[in-house]
Fold:
Amino acid sequence: MEPPQADAGLITTARDLYRWDQALYTEVLVKRAMLDSIFTPGLGDYGYGWFVRSGPDGVVHGHSGGLPGFTCYIMRIPESRRTIIVLGNFDRLGRTVGDVAAILRGDSVPLPRARHIIAADTAAQARLAGTYRTAGRDSVLVLVEDGFFVAQQPGKFRAQLLPESAQDYFAAQLRGTARFRENGRRTTLVIEDGLGREVVRAERSRR
Structure:
């Protein structure tokens, strides 16, 4: 894939990125005055190619990146000279980096919950399928497609729903959950991501 801007086209390893990171504590690559400028926020919390933010580890420098099939995240902790580098081919590396930072601080990190996928209740899925509407009247489509139960909000997300019960599903691509709750003729759908943040809430009424 051609890079959309002045990014991509770089092949490296986590070990070599770490060598580059450590060189930024010296003047081997860039003079000190320029380094100070690079890590000074100018537009909001953004310096020259780095987000500069404060948190439990003090001031940290970080950035993510990605194209389809390639994702990366680097977080520098100058106070301890620790660096967390994650290279992968899936989204949401920020949580992985945050968990590693917490482990390095000695904080506890909640383990992912095991998923118990059951056989699909095709009758329940057929009943739940349809067009749901958010409070802003955006459409959320729930459908059975080529044998898969899918939820999608056009232009925002598309996720296969794997059943954990007749009304509770694992939203695979979001690493979260989709919950259907039926109340008379009204069905409410709530989809959350892997951090428990609400992605969408929508309702459908049957005539």
Q: What stands out?
A: Residues 134 and 182 are 16 Å apart (CA to CA). The longest strand covers residues 58-67.
